[in-house]
Write a structure and sequence with these properties.
By secondary structure, this protein is of the alpha+beta class. It has helices spanning 2-22, 103-107, 119-130; strands spanning 35-42, 45-50, 55-62, 72-76, 93-97, 109-116. It has a single domain (25-130), classed as OB fold (Dihydrolipoamide Acetyltransferase, E2P) (Beta Barrel), CATH 2.40.50. The protein has 3 helices and 6 strands, in the order H-E-E-E-E-E-H-E-H. The chain starts with a helix and ends in an 8-residue tail after the last helix.
Amino acid sequence: MKTKIILAATIMIAALAAPAAAADSSNVCLRHRDVDGWGARDNHSMVVNDRFGRKYLVSLAGICSDLNWAFGAGFRAPGHFGMEGSCVDRGDHVVMGGGGVSRVANGSCWVTKVQLYTKDMQAADKFARENKQPLAAY
């Protein structure tokens, strides 16, 4: 009987820990070929949709203020060889187009982190905007 209780408790603990592991940014892969829309969250992050309906929070560094004005955006990996199956990753550059985007911004904004944009994050951002508070750093 003790063995069954210990086994059941172990299974429950593993099940509870699984969602936390799934949200870990090291396991997230936004493939270049699956990008299907985006929006600027602020001057240092963007929300990117993939063709499967998932949302990703892409954190940025550098001169990224033109994101608010760009008509289009994508990612270019350093060297950009065989990108179509690869994941958007730290160090990839954001390529923006249209809307008065400067040439300086196109080469000076890069990815620092890619993570799933969870429902909790979306709700927190919505609350912050509605209450004119700064967005959380994730």
